[in-house]
Sequence to fold (139 residues):
Amino acid sequence: MQYWLFKSEPNAWGWDDQVKKADAGEEWDGVRNYQARNFMRQMKLGDRGFFYHSVNEKRIVGIVEICAEIHPDSTTDDPRWECVDIKAVKSVERPVTLDEIKAEPRLSYMILVKNSRLSVQPVTAEEWRIVCAMAGVTP
Fold:
């Protein structure tokens, strides 16, 4: 299993919106960055990810699962852009802020710390375990 982080502006698509989609999930559409798209090409069914509220909140608020592998992004006719579908698995017990992640020395190499603008990014298994512990959830 691989681990990921998905960033979204909560006023555009927030955790509550994701939860309402239930097991049907939702396309992670609108990504127009080649590196983020390429990460989605690596995702497999069942991979897990953190759902991160960006902009003002800057915190991990939930855990999602890949429920459909890479396919054309329905929001464009441009064949370069693809996406996966994700579904909510559970809310975290305690949201983990970007400041808390930056303050944790074991997470100093996490992409979120090094490249906070990338909307889809990998998370190592060790980073996953550490953040889950900080969030009060079982990895």
Q: What stands out?
A: The beta strands are 3-8, 26-27, 48-53, 59-72, 82-97, 120-123.
